[in-house]
Design brief:
elongated, two-stranded antiparallel sheet, Hypothetical Protein Ta1238, Chain: A, mainly alpha
């Protein structure tokens, strides 16, 4: 359980922050950039949830919780030393990816196949989902950049990849199951 009785500590005033293993790193490090972008995605999802109800809102709440799990995973380097940790580090699991895939497949089954790219927009929820999708893609790129220089849980990268697909499909669902999608018309304004 996390207990925060003091919000500011002044320990980051010199441009460093602590990782999950206690190591201090620059706030501009690739690891901090990756989990910071995941945090940004979670905040953008919070805005999207203002427009969601029922099962969609419940699915989004689960994903927001997953994003905190993902941030915890990314802020803890040295996966090979997980067994030596004081407590079991939180890592993304294949089951979390499988749940997204199941939800994508179920939602996509009711949608007409695309014949064009979709312009972000439509309903407020769909527009927010498109913003979530682009932030998820950036979080994925930042995490892949981190994986090029340090060890990263492969399920973290896969989760972000699948999550951006989830946002795309749910954006279509939010647009009256794709009926209100705004389609790209190549060269329309030439």
């Amino acid at each position: 359980m996390v207990v925060l009785n003091k919000i500011y500590t002044r320990t980051g005033d010199a441009g460093e922050t602590a990782l999950g293993n206690g190591a201090r790193v620059a706030k501009h490090s690739q690891r901090v950039t990756a989990y910071g972008t995941v945090d940004e995605l979670n905040a953008v999802m919070g805005m999207a949830r203002l427009h969601a109800t029922g099962d969609m809102a419940a699915a989004m709440a689960r994903i927001q919780n997953d994003l905190f799990d993902l941030g915890a995973d990314l802020c803890r380097p040295d996966m090979e030393r997980d067994a030596d940790a004081e407590y079991t580090p939180l890592r993304m699991m294949p089951e979390q990816i499988a749940r997204l895939e199941t939800e994508i497949d179920a939602a996509n089954a009711d949608l007409q196949p695309l014949r064009s790219f979709i312009l972000p927009g439509g309903t407020p929820l769909a527009a927010h989902f498109h913003l979530c999708r682009t932030v998820a893609r950036r979080a994925e790129r930042e995490t892949i950049s981190l994986a090029a220089i340090e060890t990263v849980n492969e399920s973290a990268v896969k989760y972000l990849n699948r999550l951006s697909d989830w946002f795309f499909v749910m954006g279509r669902v939010a647009n009256n199951n794709g009926a209100d999608d705004i389609l790209w018309v190549p060269g329309a304004n030439r």
